[in-house]
Write a structure and sequence with these properties.
By secondary structure, the chain is an alpha/beta fold. The chain has a domain at about 5-255: Amidase signature (AS) enzymes. It is built from 15 helices and 11 strands. The chain has helices spanning about 10-15, 20-40, 50-65, 105-110, 155-165, 180-185, 220-230, 275-290, 305-320, 335-350, 350-365, 370-390, 415-420, 425-430, 460-475, and strands spanning about 45, 75-80, 115-120, 170-175, 190, 210-215, 260-265, 290-295, 395-400, 435-445, 450-455. Helix 2 packs antiparallel against helix 3 (about 50-65), helix 7 (about 220-230) packs antiparallel against helix 15 and helix 9 (about 305-320) packs across helix 11 (about 350-365). The two termini are about 15 Å apart.
């Protein structure tokens, strides 16, 4: 195994035994970045000098006996998380030169545990997209087939982990933006329960939906990272004051007798046949491990995409009003104040961001608020109740993560509706605020990864991690690496 292919747990073991130093590991990762980044384009900003310094500091601390949970582990961070002194662009021209004066809560926690920041990863502009083609700095490519998309909006983070350009990464998930690209890149992506992880320092897209989570090479690494980034934060009013269990401790426990719900609304016509077959095989594998599959119904699933794109765009319209050319970011010259606003936004925002701001502003406008925004909130409540009813009889719900494998670059850019439907299986999870994980469950005849999604009850990440780990340990899908 190449050094850059190590998992967090494998790297910590090698560092702890003296076989590998944080500096050696970090240099191996940067050597990999130099070799493949030209093909993948996973990063917006590469932080090599500061990373080597962080690795040296971790080395000194380890010799002193001060060992953080991530001491010396090179990680990438999605470029919508504020990092003090390192630019945070959201892959948008409007923030191209923005350097935050403060650290997000999650990256502060990673720092405290000794991680090494390799760089900031590419995303769809302001996390608005499903393919990482909407970035102002160019599209990221899928390591399994560089003519295809990596998914989005956390496509840069998922591609970087898949290609060995970091040991693990952080992403954000508003409607599937961690799980969908994780499935398409053949890695593990976890969206925690809304409120489990602080959003302080995450540049907001849709504040009632956004959640930060880990992107890793295996399930154990996701549990390790979730231990670090979880917890109540007074700086985030939506952060939940709930106890954080040791997520690693549940791994390896027997899943015999656990009930897995199979929603009839999710195994639909029009799905890619190979994806459908692999997901069904994964459910059979879980059954052979002692889990009990039961059919459940989530009857309002058909309304999820429409409700999501009203709520998310409405919140985006409000959140992105702060980019006016006055306080920070790009400022274009204009004839007067109003013209300056208009010029700044015309030059600073890409077409997808403009589309969503217009949609959201319309949905919130006088005379349309009740017909659109209020109705979408009511649908959201019904979707949440669907999950609550289903979880009265099952422990976890299993679905495909995506309806098809990664599509070709440019294939859906002219058809926003088809692009939006890429997240059809993930959106409901964000609307309900429940946790979900995507794990590799197969490869198509074209050697493209397929993901299985496991959904849990509010603040029950333990159950989805336990079942995901049991499945992973009984298969070899997570061990496959792309040839670059």
């Amino acid at each position: 195994m190449e050094t850059y292919d190590l998992t967090i747990s494998g790297a910590l073991q090698a560092i702890g035994s003296g076989q590998l130093s944080p500096v050696e590991l970090t240099k191996a990762v940067f050597k990999r970045i130099e070799a493949v980044e030209g093909k993948i384009k996973a990063f917006v900003t590469i932080a090599k000098e500061s990373a080597i310094e962080q690795a040296r500091s971790a080395e000194i601390n380890i010799k002193k006996g001060v060992k953080g949970a991530l001491a010396g582990i090179p990680m990438a961070v999605k470029d919508n998380l504020c990092t003090e002194g390192i630019r945070t662009t959201c892959s948008s021209k409007i923030l191209e030169k923005f350097i935050p004066p403060y650290e997000s809560t999650v990256t502060k926690k990673l720092k405290e545990q000794g991680y090494v920041l390799t760089g900031k990863t590419n995303l769809d502009e302001f996390a608005m997209g499903s393919s990482t083609e909407n970035s102002a700095f160019g599209a990221t490519r899928n390591p399994w087939d560089t003519g295809r998309i990596p998914g989005g909006s956390s496509g840069g983070s998922c591609a970087a982990v898949s290609a060995g350009e970091c040991i693990a990464a952080l992403g954000s998930d508003t409607g599937g933006s961690i799980r969908q690209p994780a499935a398409l890149c053949g890695v593990v992506g976890l969206k925690p329960t809304y409120g489990r992880v602080s959003r302080y320092g995450l540049v907001a897209f849709a504040s009632s939906l956004d959640q930060i989570g880990p992107i890793t090479k295996d399930v154990r690494d996701s549990a390790i990272l979730l231990n670090v980034i979880s917890g109540h934060d007074l700086l985030d009013s939506t952060s939940a004051p709930v106890e954080v269990p040791d997520f690693v401790s549940v791994l390896g426990r027997d899943i015999k007798g656990m009930k897995i719900g199979i929603p009839k609304e999710f195994l639909i016509e029009g799905m890619d046949k190979e994806v459908d077959a692999f997901v069904r095989d994964a459910i059979k594998k879980l059954e052979s491990l002692g889990a009990v599959p039961l059919e459940v119904s989530l009857p309002h699933t058909g309304y999820a995409v429409a409700a999501y794109y009203i709520l998310a765009t409405s919140e985006a319209s409000s959140n992105l009003a702060r980019y006016d050319g006055v306080k920070y970011g790009l400022r274009a010259e204009g004839r007067d104040l109003m013209d300056m606003y208009m010029q700044t936004r015309a030059k600073g925002f890409g077409s997808e961001v403009k589309r969503r701001i217009i949609l959201g502003t319309y949905a919130l406008s006088s005379g349309y608020y009740d017909a659109y925004y209020k109705k979408a909130q009511q649908i959201r409540t019904l979707i949440k109740k669907d999950f609550q009813r289903a979880f009265e009889t099952v422990d976890v719900i299993a679905t495909p993560t995506t309806p098809a494998p990664a599509f070709k670059l440019g294939e859906k850019t002219e058809d926003p509706l088809q692009m939006y439907l890429s997240d059809i299986f993930t959106i409901s999870v964000n609307l309900a605020g429940v946790p979900g994980i995507s794990i590799p469950c197969g490869f198509t005849s074209g050697n493209l990864p397929v993901g299985l999604q496991l959904i849990g009850k509010h603040f029950d990440e333990e159950s989805i991690l336990k079942i995901a780990y049991a499945y992973e340990q009984s298969t070899d899908w997570h061990k496959k690496r792309p040839k670059l």
